[in-house]
Amino acid sequence: MDASAADFGSAIACYGLCKDFGDGAEKRRVLHGVDVAIAPGQMTMLEGPSGCGKTTLISLIGGILAPTEGEVMLWGQRLRALSARDLGRFRLQHIGFVFQQFHLLPALTAAENVTLPLMARGWRKRSALDAAHALLAQLGMEAHANKQPLQLSGGQQQRVAIARALIHRPRLIICDEPTAALDARSGQKIMELLHTFAVDPDRACLVVTHDQRIHRFADRIIAMDDGRISNPSLPAS
Amino acid sequence: MSWIALKMLFGDRAKYAGLIFGVAFSALLISQQSAFCVGLINTTPGLLYDIREPDLWVMDARVNTIDGGASLPDTALARVHGVPGIAWAAPLFKGVVTLIGQDQSQQTASLIGVDDSTLLGLPRERLLGSADDLRRSGAIFIDEAGYRLLWPGEPLRIGRVLELNDRRAVLVGVLRSSPQFTSSIAIFTQYRNAVQFAPGGRNRLSFLLARTRSGSDVRAVAASVSQRTGLKALTHDEFIRSTIDFFIRTTPIPASFGFVVVLGVIVGAVIIGLTFSLFIRDHLPQFAAMKAIGVSNATIIGMVLLQGLLVGFIGYAFGVGLTAFTLDLGRQYIPDFRSFFLPWPIVIGTAVIEIFMVITAGFIALRRVLVADPAMVFRT
Fold first, then answer.
1. What is the CATH number of the domain that holds A19?
2. B contact set with A (CB within 8 A)
3. Where does the ABC transporter domain start and stop, copy by copy (chain A) (predicted)?
């Protein structure tokens, strides 16, 4: 399961992706044969109106949902070829997620939240906490490392979520509306941080957004409409 | 991930407390009611635990318990004595008597009349007085619990006068005997005194205590006694079993205590199940986020089971600890509580029931986690 074993040049490659929800008469196709390739070392933004299939597409790319038809390859690894258990391990090793609502564990401190991917990989608590404190310091959150999420502002919580997504050095960062729950100023700061820390020559960063104010951080913008890629190579403005 | 599971649990204090309360309440009901039931049933052989010298108890064929019923004619003693294999036999009276204390309070007491010459049947653990004093006319011994009930807070003292069925009785000693089911007060006297104290008909002999000759097969001698005399002869252990079985079969004790135990299981299961479900429901987005990140189902199952087992252990410790504490407190201050204790099979049985409830509740709640779509983290 070595993702780097077969590098096809793209970090993410999707072929003819279709996704249906429901059964029988209730069946509804949300993605209609999406083909897209995303290069490493860039911040790629996925934009489009609500309900156009952005979240479904990142769920398929992140291996959280399985496509009805088509194929997703991450760093040369066909996700369909992986068992559910191996897919979980693959996500744990290669993908970092930043959610719109942060989804931090309220009972844990910021640093403890950041350790989650490391703990799930079997790290010792002390080592994981050391790594978390170091990363939070890089993100300017050193003073808040021992606070619980409810003691932090939205922007600070999202920084913690970004640290959690980065801590295990994944090769793909998937961000779902990372600025949607934040005010404009916090949103800009979060995007600056993401651009600084998430974009790496050996890493792809895929950001789903509605927020046109953050388009300037994108190296590439992919527009979606009605379950299809409407403009696969729109350059960042 | 264990410490993360524990912090999640401790972080939700209301549900953490609710779960512990549910387990503790259930464990308390189950262990306490079971202990009461066992304690009460254990009092039914009462006297049998104190009289160890005979290896055969001979009685009327209709008698099932130490509290007797039908009595034997006086001639039974000689008939039993004549059975080959019997070394000795002695009479025992067992009845109930109305007792009036010096303050004119009226109580019902268990009256045991022991062999006039050998005093066979008198419990050995004597706290005050000499056994020889029992040979005096109207002399009685009383058990300690009965003494405390009649004269609460007063030091042990002999020479007190009581009225047993309108007859004067003098207290010459205090002893310690096993609690009895029929009465909280046990009075011991010579056989000849007992038949005077207790009203009755022609036949007054309740039991014959017999010892088989050394090297005899006790069961074979018992069968021989039955065959030759038409009386029932039981070994010591058989008579204990027969007495307990009779009370289990014919009284509502097991059913009434059992009902409360079942209620404890049901109430506990409902509280634990609902609270665990609420706990899991409230933490579902967090579990979904973990699944999205790549935390395996096995790890999540382990986390939930750890949470369940921990609250189970703490709640169980509280519940069973409270049972042990209340029983101990009761034994110290209430004479009637002396037969109530917490046997280890109840401790283990309660633990097994609690573990089963917690694991079942955990697995039912876990289903929601395991089927939870991790993609929900993108929608909420």
1. 3.40.50.300
2. 1, 3-4, 7-12, 285-286, 288-297, 299, 373-375, 377-380
3. 12-237
